[in-house]
Specification:
The complex is a heterodimer of chains A (102) and B (202). The mean pLDDT of chain A is 91. Chain A is built from 5 helices and 3 strands. In chain A, 31% of the residues are buried. In chain A, strand 2 and strand 3 form a beta hairpin. With 102 residues, chain A is an alpha+beta fold. Chain A is 59% helix and 21% strand. Chain B has one domain. Helices cover 80% and strands 1% of the residues of chain B. Classes of the chains: A alpha+beta (102), B mainly alpha (202). Chains A and B meet through helix 2, strand 1, helix 3 and strand 3 of A and helix 1, helix 3 and strand 1 of B.
């Protein structure tokens, strides 16, 4: 497939800096809570919450309210679809970069 | 701009950043090493009993270390840093780990009666495991642990140490280095919390 055509089909859900940061962090983890993602991505709580909702709607993350010890926590996990979407996105970007540098 | 390389690195290193993982794992390794010394000092039926006990101690340590790390992080770390659990190793890391472990087990069984090769193989194996963590997490101190393991092997070979006791020397020294480093890192982490660099999330 023509790489320039492929870039127009890039997943816009992933192709957004905040969501890319969230998915990248979650890709390396089994699960994390809201505070951890807030700290590691540097996003504001409101921004993080909004992007997590979008990712959940897209089926890329799963959000669950639970307890860690006695503390109520919001746990976030990347789904298989989210994992595949990030891998595909990074593959496409890499190919485009290679093509541009040729 | 989103620095995904930096985010990936920080996510991978998060399990070790507070020092608790190293402190508790190091203590577990140290305990097995010290037990080995006691086992080797015993004779007769006590030795054979202690030998069986070693297997139970190793299994118990794996379970206990994982349990204690989680409980300790729950109490002292996660309220400040947020909760995260590393993913199980995937793809190439799992394959490389299994292949390496099988090669080393085969090598150790084959060269058990040749002390120099046996001691070198064992210290290289431990060193490779620690180097893999260094590469994966990007944490430089794991290179130091890997170097400690190699140096221990070299010194043991040079001094002609008994190959029966060597695995426990290696475990004791590596475990002690990890524990000491973990204590320093955890003290630093506690200081950061006390200084207000990390706020408790409510």
């Amino acid at each position: 497939m023509d790489i320039y055509r492929k870039i127009t089909e890039i997943d816009r859900m992933v192709n957004e800096p905040a969501r890319l940061a969230i998915l990248t962090a979650l890709y390396e983890l089994k699960e994390a809570d809201f505070t951890f993602l807030n700290r590691i991505t540097g996003l504001t709580r409101g921004n993080l919450s909004a992007h997590l909702n979008k990712l959940e709607e897209a089926g890329y993350v799963k959000i669950e309210k639970t307890f860690i010890g006695k503390r109520p926590t919001t746990i976030i996990r990347i789904t298989t679809e989210g994992r595949k979407a990030l891998e595909e996105y990074l593959r496409t970007i890499r190919k485009v970069m290679e093509k541009v540098q040729e | 701009m989103t620095d995904i390389g930096e985010i990936r690195k920080r996510a991978r290193a998060s399990w070790w950043e507070d020092g608790l993982t190293e402190m508790i794992s190091g203590l577990g390794i140290l305990l097995i090493g010290l037990y080995g010394f006691l086992m080797n000092a015993s004779t007769g039926s006590i030795y054979s009993l202690a030998e069986k006990g070693l297997f139970i101690l190793i299994l118990l340590s794996i379970f206990l270390v994982r349990y204690l790390i989680r409980r300790a992080k729950e109490k002292w770390v996660w309220p400040f840093t947020g909760y995260s659990i590393p993913s199980r190793s995937r793809g190439i890391w799992t394959t490389a780990g299994v292949v390496l472990a099988l090669i080393m087990i085969a090598l150790i069984l084959l060269v058990h009666d040749k002390p120099v090769i046996y001691e070198a193989s064992l210290s290289i194996f431990v060193s490779i495991v620690l180097s893999s963590i260094a590469i994966y997490s990007g944490l430089k101190r794991f290179w130091i642990y890997a170097a400690i393991s190699l140096i221990t092997g070299l010194i043991s070979i040079y001094m002609g140490a008994d190959s029966g006791i060597f695995p426990f020397v290696l475990l004791t020294i590596t475990g002690a280095a990890m524990t000491a480093s973990g204590i320093i890192l955890f003290s630093r982490f506690k200081k950061e919390v006390a200084d207000g660099h990390l706020q408790e999330d409510n």
